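Appendix B, example 12.
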Amino acid sequence: MENTIVIKLGGVASDNLTEAFFEQITKWQMNRKKIVIVHGGGHYVTKMMQEMGIPVETKNGLRITNQAALEVTKMVLIGQVQPTITTAFQKRGIAVIGLNAGDTGLLEATQVSDRELGMVGEITKVKTTLIEQLLGEDIVTIIAPLGINKEYNWLNVNADTVACEVASALNAEALYLLTDVPGVKNEAAIIPEIASSDIGYLQATGIIKGGMIPKLASAAFAVKNGVNQVIITDSLSTTGTKITNKVAIR
């Protein structure tokens, strides 16, 4: 969708919702940009599970999601995190609405092949009709990272993955993956731009590692599937690292 910008809010959502963040949103809207936000919430889910005495288990950086963990995840993402974000927009006079997979089956998903992860899914289809209708009315759309499979079971989905799938389905002009670092680093220096074809090389040489590996894999998927560019940064006001589908030249 022309002039669409997708933003993934990561970490502690309230840390991202600064005045500079809203100033950029307002500026984009004045320039007729359409805004979609996919929010995470792992920090809040972990905190709630610990308070409820539910064990927190992970595998390869992904939360193992049994039935109890799934119910807490739904409760926290839809009942706590999303309202916090929408209220922050409302306070600034910005029209906004929160959506989840239960709204017109927005995000269709299937369970990942690694069954040890439990009720963890991957997106198979983004139904864009409702999103496009809302964007046509200049309503900022906030989406929770949960999917529903063909049996109408809810699944926990990685927020980066959801953001990339949504951005690709909308053919967004840009996707911002907001994280807790200012970009992809080579030692202390931020790499200003990475070609998607270079990601394997950077991983093999150890320049990218840990949690940045799946984030860049998601970014590469997005730029190969209709998104003009992906920016990994800790703020909308900083340039961070741009991921494009250009052919790498080394």
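The radius of gyration is 17 Å. The chain has one domain: 4-244.
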